[in-house]
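At this stage, I wrote out one protein's amino acid sequence and its backbone structure tokens, and that material follows here:
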Amino acid sequence: MSEKRLLLVCLAVLAIFRVSAVAQDEKNELTGIIGRTFISDRGIIGPNAPPVEAVIYSGKGLSFEINYTRRILVNPVFSISGEVPAMFNLDEKLNSGGPFVPKDYREIFVTPAVRANLFPTTAVSPWVSFGGGFGHFSENSQLIYDGGANPGKSTTSGVIQGGVGLDVRVLHRFFIRGEARDFWSGQPDFPLADTGKTRQHNYFVGGGLMWRF
């Protein structure tokens, strides 16, 4: 190897270690995400099931996520972080074949997780996340269509969260983040609309800005 090539290799290695050292100093991340939550339609069973349109339809609620992350291990190939994503879907509209469900409800998920990034010291870094926590559902007091009293109650359940995403650097400490997460939770309380299920997938898809400090 010529002296010139050896010098270039040494400079490249030093640059990698320099970037890694800087990344080690920036151990905290704060992220804000806006997006939509997608919930599958569910069939209504039992004596209250209407003869037509025996289905609970969910809207695509405008949702927000706030996420704090602490990076634990960082090197040029991968990083391991602990994160706390908190997702807020504050207006999940509902529809069905009769006055069996509330007009809408709110859901909040807080799920501490472990996140693994690939190439965390570069400008583009994909990642995966897995964790668990809790979810809270708060229902409208009125049923759809007739405005009658909703017999359902607010509930809290355990939640398992899995997600994938991509971070793209736009400035030194600022990144654009796109992500998709599945919050697998219990269902809201629908005593007049039995679905035969106890859990539901809440797919949150969004994008936003991440600040590393």
Summary: The chain has one domain: 3-212. Residues 125 and 175 are 10 Å apart (CA to CA).
